[in-house]
Records
---
Amino acid sequence: LHLAVTGFNKIIEHEVIPDAIGVQLAALECVLHIQEKLRRLDFTPGGAQGVGRIAEYVFRVSKNVRVRQGVSLALVERTLQQISKPGGANTALAEISSLSAEPVYYAFAKGMVSAALQNSGDTIASLELFFKAPRMPDRPKRYQDSARITLARAYVAAGQEALAVPHFQKVRKESNEVVQSLLELAWLYLKQHKHQEAIGVTYNIFSSYRQAFSPGTLMLMAMALNELCQYPGALKTVAIFRSDYRRMFEWLKAWAAAPR
């Protein structure tokens, strides 16, 4: 797949030739399909520049909804790639204006860039627009869980914690991000001294997502039990934590000590 993505990027990075744009769009769709399954396979630097050129051409000449949405999705993926790198958020902010013709994609991209720039106000405004889209296309729905968590974090940062709770709760149960979302919700409850709620959420994680790597879940549960003076339960939870994660700790300890 790495070789395939590299090959598709070679096609994408060429200058746009109107008679051959179909080939570039097909290559773009192939990369997007692979990225949906394997998020780590980014556009190459040349491919990222090619995405911009293709988008500029398509938005200028095409009215085809599917084509425009595919290009919009590619621009969003490029934006997410940019903000994951040091200093990349400012570059992304300067370039997302090309998405303004597609409001749903633009709102999501603007929200994620604003979050990377730690601008809670713009994050909230943009992602609320994303969720309020009257007819959200199917393709950007893949970003809903990431948007939920990002929006919830923005509300917490803005001191509007009550508005964060429903967004943490709405992350889909089958999502790869559900455990992180529930864990952050439990931390929020603990911060608010809602210890029973924090215990309930951590127990949900522990019982429903037993195979997930989430050491913070048991430690948070122990802290909440301790705050309620349920000391035997807190000690038992710490013991479970030690039992469940001892092998991982020993492996990491040995790996860290190994000469390189």
Note: The mean pLDDT is 93.
---
Amino acid sequence: LESIGRLQAYKLNVKNVLFIVEKVLERSINYGDLLDEVYKSRELLSSKEYIEDNFSEFISEYIGRKPEGIFFSNSEAIMLDILHSNISYEYKLAYIENNKTFISRLTDLDGTELDRGIIDSLLQTNKLKFSSENITAYWSKEEQCSYEFISYLAMNLREDNCKAVLQENVSMCNSLINNPSVNDQTFTLMLPFVDQEIDEINSQLDRLRVKALIEKSVVSATEQNVNILMANSFNEELTLLVNLEEYEDSIIGVIARG
């Protein structure tokens, strides 16, 4: 059997590779770990080379034939090889959605033909390591953040890690603080890092958030902001803005014109 494996004298498919691996290693193998088992075993070097020479075809079958309830748990290096490969977009998504392995650095995916859907899938499944570097890498690539990214922040941003992440991503805080899709905890954790005035607050922000932004002195005394406060009947918040001495005359002028 080992000689058959060394000579690659068999049809390359998942069933045959699984059979050979279990016979050579003399133990049962978890389907989700199959590639790891092949890649780390000296006895299976020829099988590894056989797979590498036919990578796209083998991986497509490996993903497509995954039994129900099984999750892939191959190494990060193998997962990166899969995402960098020429297999179909649908198979890449299927691997991510049924995977337990984390990607440590988003920049390791640079140079691939990955579209936003692949990145969003990593975020949705929470399989991208949460770090300031990865947040920066994402924010520098995306002109507009996705719902998946906002949910990813909600899953991972906490009091004990927010400073390390947010102080390196102030521009993100400045943008997302005005986004009503951000949940309350994320809003609260981001607020101390906001350092840019908002010329037009989102009309969907609730009263508590508007008040917090005004108290933080990051709401500009623009006509748009005054009109939004008036339209939402945020009278106390408008009074609070008026009481900021530097804004008083301009705000009163806007109110008078209204």
Note: Residues 14-25 form the longest helix (12 residues).
---
Amino acid sequence: NENYASTKAEIEGAAYAAGIYVQRLQELEAAGLNTAVAHREYEMIVEQLNGLIPDLNLAIDEQTGLINKNSDALIGDIEAWKKNATAKALQEKYTDVLEEQGAAEAALIDAQAKRNRLTEESKILTAEKSRLESEQSRIAKQLDAVEQQINRTNAEGAYELQKQKQELTKEYNLLGISLDENSEKIQDNINQQNGLENQIKESRETLATYEGQIADAENALKLFADECENGGDKLTGTDKAVQTMVGRLQALQDEYEATRVS
């Protein structure tokens, strides 16, 4: 994830630069700070350190002209800040993963609810189709009966039967139009359900993968905590675990976005 990688790089860069500044402070202190130029450089470095890591809260003693803590303690403070800042970044990444999982679960629930509504709508449409077909079949039988009567009746007596035939034909055709519209709605319902079924399947796969991302985040946090407890200065193992988590998360995020907008 770019946000985590950027934050991690900023933390490492600030800690590295702070270490260089502390080294220069040590050199100036060893030389005795005997000149105004040395004093000014010393003050500027202290300002730079406070700007880089405000938590250091360094101050120069007015009487000694030196910072309010020795350089060894300062190096320890920088390392502690680095570990705390890294731990915070990891915790935020872990929180992000949980939030993303929650969003994926919400998307799944929404898709399932829509599919359930479409299922109920499909039942209504199917029942309406049966009703229309039954009604059209009834009208067809009436038309057939009228046709037979017309064939058995002389021209003078067929007038009323022809009018009845026209009315029945009109009603039959209207039912045909309603059936066509109903069929379109049923097909649209089927298409929407198929799309949601695919979305639900992909969302479930995404959620299953998020379980792995959460496990990765938890492992990275645990590894970091263990290394801090053991006093490790080089967090190479943590970096590897975190980068694995970040890489998998980015691929998953792309998949989730595709699922969300589909």
Note: The CA atoms of residues 20 and 26 lie 10 Å apart.
---
Amino acid sequence: DEQAAVLARHHAGAGNAEDAVRWFVLAADRAEAVSALIEAITDLDQALRLIDASDGTAAELRLRRGRLRGRTGDHPGARTDLEAALRVAETSGDRTLEMRSRDELGFLVAGAADYRESVDHLERALAIAEELGDTTGRVSALARLAITWANRAQLDRAQRSGELALDAASVAHDELLVTVAMDALKLVSLLLGRMADVERYGEELRRMYARRNDRWLEQFVDLETAFVSISGCRFDEARERLDRALATNRDLHDDG
């Protein structure tokens, strides 16, 4: 949001670092809410320049910037941020921050096909989530393990992890967590050839992502349901879905 960014720069220029950081973070919140990921990263860059790197707030902001960098294809920058957040977590004994940092690192390196390291981070994140009784952390780690196992062609493990994630999300009655679990099961179902399930998950997820304007995840719904269209010889529908996924990808500058 331009007004928040303007106010942030005003406070920064006046030497009011605390207020400037608050407004830059708000600007990042608003930018991310409309899938303006590059703008959100820029706002976080500005906030981080005003904070001591050893401060706990800096670690939280680097974790967030790392996640956004991963979504825009800047994997080296994302890894630098996430590893910095993890170091702070380990040094300070912040188990929640460690869980979240490992969860994001595991997801990031899986995207680079380093599945061994991915599983290590995600299993450690899962263990911490279970230790803390953190349902959000547990669902996220299980869902990402499902995706990682699927990409390693260990589909039995993938299915089991995805089902555990969905069970935990359903018990929590949390729609956001349900989407996390369903997104993982969508990929597992695709690799198992269960096209009706892929279409069903895709329809539900598309509605959920549209409600919260999450275009980054929505692109994968279009990509993966296009295979359902192809399998049914609905080639015009497949092209439409692939074109939409590609257009979204380009709009978001997701170069990875």
Note: The chain has a mean pLDDT of 94.
